[in-house]
Specification:
mainly alpha; 4 helices
Length: about 80
């Protein structure tokens, strides 16, 4: 019975199921560690997800050249 329920949830509502599981996990971290620790943890997870997503798309993990050009364009305003 439970296997059928989980298969139904996974096939029809994969995003909602993963989101709910993530919410439960973050809620437990909040209860155990506290708010600021949870926010730092979430920032680290999101940063790693973003880097992994860029690598999957074939882009560099950290766009050094683009970032360098952006910084130099901003500094030219002060010259």
């Amino acid at each position: 019975m439970w296997n059928g329920l989980w298969e139904l949830l996974w096939e029809r509502h994969r995003g909602k199921t993963l989101g709910s599981a993530g919410g439960v996990l973050l809620g437990l971290i909040y209860l155990i560690c506290g708010l600021w620790d949870m926010l730092i943890f979430t920032l680290i997870v999101y940063t790693c997800y973003h880097i992994g997503n860029r690598v999957e798309r074939g882009e560099p993990a950290i766009p050094v050249e683009t970032t360098w050009r952006w910084i130099m364009d901003k500094w030219r305003l002060f010259r």
